[in-house]
Amino acid sequence: MTVLPLLLGTLVLSQSDTLTQRVYHGRLGQLEVAAPKLAGSITVDGALDEPVWQDAALLTGFSQFTPVDGIAAADSTEVYIWYSTAAIHIGVRAFDDPGTVRATLSQRDRISSDDNIQFFLSTFNDGRQATFLAVNPLGVQADGAVNESGRGTGCGYFSCATRTREVPDLSQDFVWESAGRLTETGYELEVRIPLKSIRFQSAANQSWGINILRVVQRSGQEQTWTPARVGQSSFLGQSGHLVGLEGLKTGRAFDVVPTLTSRIDGSPASGTDRWGYRGGSPEFGASLRWGVTPNLTLNVTANPDFSQVESDAGQFSFDPRQALFFAERRPFFLDGIEQFQVPDNLIYTRRIVQPVAATKLTGTISGTRLGALLAIDDRGASRTGQNNPFFGIVRMTRDLGHGSQVGGVVTQQVDGANTNTVMGVDGRVVLGQIHSITFNGAVASDRLNGTTTTAPLWGLGYRITGRGFRARYTINAIHDDFRTRAGFVRQTNIANATVAHSYTWIRPERTLESFTAEVSLNGTWVYDSLVNGGGIQDRKFALNLNSSLRGGWNVGASWLVETFGYDPSIYTNYGILQPGGAIEPFVGTPRIPNHDAVLSVNSPQFSWGSFNLFTLIGHDENFPEWASGRLAMFNGGFTLRPSDKMRVNFSVNHTEVHRRSDGSRVSLQTVPRAGLEYQLSRALQARVVSQYAIISQDSLRDESRTGLPIVLRGADGSYSRATAFRQGRVQTDFLLTYLPTPGTVAYFGYGTSHQEFDPLGRRTLERVGDGFFMKLSYLFRMAG
């Protein structure tokens, strides 16, 4: 729809409306919004029919942000804002043609496939952090935080050149109200944000940064109220402002959440054919959240429930040197998680397994952001089983002008006589509008069994983020002895350097709306080799092409040329079995040359659903035998939406490697995952998720040199043949969730595990474990 009717309708206001409602047009640069303070009240039902909305400030004049920035938005949007002493009130009229709006009932934070309106509230007006709130046309919420560090664009190896802004972290949930409804002209939304639910300044007169982004699924467009440009170092730095906020009630939120959990686990009874169950006793715990000041929050928990109600999505690492990362899901750690973000994952709260008690303080003190966490873990997490490991974590950041910051981090874990301490510093300096520098460094001191090691980690980056030309230069290194017991390190004893240049062609009103070509060079060293001027281990060249097509299609292609150097650390327990029975050391080919082709497709969000695929085919590492193999990798999935209440999801992660000499398969890893969700209401959902994880490997041989069998050395020093194996496991979870508001929740779940067995050459699946799970909690919000 054209914006002209809206603009004309806005200009031709009645005299009474002109007196009470001021219009702020984004494309005309009217970005300083004096939202009125009103004494009225509303019912949050999605209908903007209360008289108070006529007196609200009106924000309009949206611009297209992606895929083509700098032009007027094709769809008309009106946003109304006013505030009271206790809340911010926002109303939206989003105009669209009948039948084109994508809207479904879904679980909280699962609205990315729907049309939605996103609000970025920079309550400290720093151009770097913002509270993130989003609503779909039926009122379903998503929320979290945006923390622009210059590192969090969420891009992969093949798509960094096309990312336009740092993605929100949806981990934490706030207590706020929203409702939406479809109309003949599009949809309407109503939002009420209690001031107790968010952090903000304590000044008498405040100015907040604000931007509003509309996602239109039928066209694949993002549209912003401010005329934000893609070619900028900061998205939040291009926000408008809510000015003159006065008399905000600074009552403190005081939340108490008691929790009751119970779990019953089943397994085969030892020595019998019967199935036995254990557990079932109720466990009680409680969490407390107190707003010490409007910008400082204290959390305390005792005997908390940290059970996961659904298994982690199956994944595997193609490179055996790299550990797998699983995101945090537990509510206590998610509140204020943006204050604990630090480069290289030096804070990774899943290291705290099952705390007996924990407390944390998050917020801002004298312009410095603070996150402090103390936790006492269960003895089962101790190395000796005799101690309760203690964790102490402090993270502090401070702004250095608009968009720039410097931060520090200290983590410590004490497990009896064993201690681990990490101290680090990091920062970002924004130069002008498109240049930025990032830096980080840390030192880890680890004392284990009377031996202390000290080692560094460091990194440096420079980025140019122009509208057309972009460049990034980064180097990161981590010593082999760097150990962190409170963080996550994917791989040590490594250094990586990347040089990447790209150019994007913007083509408004064309079928091919944008096209990006990137050339990337990446080098990997063993840490000491880089520091001492030694040779490079791995070399990678990539030509990445990405295109955005009208209607929301995204298509990418890449060509990779790589060479990998032999890494003896992977093969320390390998040997080669000689014909006479002698065992010789395994010595790999010095270098393996590779080349691969990549294709990716992401569909728009159709009324029936969407799909995506990623495939890589070529010659790549056969890591189990250190030889060049034929690699085939496929990741893909689709979502079907038979109705506005049901979603069917399917995905598969598949990798297999074949020998180039005779075509025989060396290894196979595949995880198909399927899910069915039915949303009975906004608060009530039934879900079933099942995945089948399969890993198989052929008997290994010295493929690149002698062709002789490979043997593996065990813990007792003896060798055995690396014979063929296959492992298969099916995990299925059933879950009924009632979540009317964050903190108040009821989970009722059942999970079962089946494992593959092949005793007589006929593969079967047998149940090896199951369990019932219940969690009940209730949020008591008290006046502070």
Plain-language structure description:
By secondary structure, the protein is mainly β. It has four helices and 45 strands. It is globular. Mean pLDDT is 89; it is low at 1-19.
Unreliable stretches (pLDDT < 50, length at least 5) are 1-19
Computed structural class: mainly beta
Number of strand elements: 45
The oligomeric status of these chains comes to: single chain
What best-fitting shape do the alpha-carbon axes yield? globular
Topology diagram in text:
Elements: H1 4-11, H2 15-20, E1 23-25, E2 32-33, E3 57-60, E4 63-66, E5 71-72, E6 77-83, E7 87-95, E8 116-122, E9 129-135, E10 141-147, E11 177-183, E12 186-194, E13 205-216, E14 221-224, E15 240-246, E16 254-268, E17 275-279, E18 283-293, E19 296-302, H3 331-334, E20 355-365, E21 368-377, E22 390-399, E23 405-415, E24 418-431, E25 435-448, E26 451-465, E27 469-478, E28 494-506, E29 512-525, H4 527-531, E30 538-549, E31 553-565, E32 574-577, E33 583-585, E34 591-602, E35 609-622, E36 627-643, E37 646-659, E38 665-679, E39 684-697, E40 710-713, E41 719-721, E42 725-741, E43 744-757, E44 764-777, E45 780-782
Parallel strand pairs: 1-3, 2-15
Antiparallel strand pairs: 3-6, 4-5, 4-14, 6-7, 7-12, 8-9, 8-13, 9-10, 11-12, 13-14, 13-15, 16-17, 16-18, 16-44, 16-45, 18-19, 19-20, 20-21, 21-22, 22-23, 23-24, 24-25, 25-26, 26-27, 27-28, 28-29, 29-30, 30-31, 31-34, 32-33, 32-40, 34-35, 35-36, 36-37, 37-38, 38-39, 39-42, 40-41, 42-43, 43-44
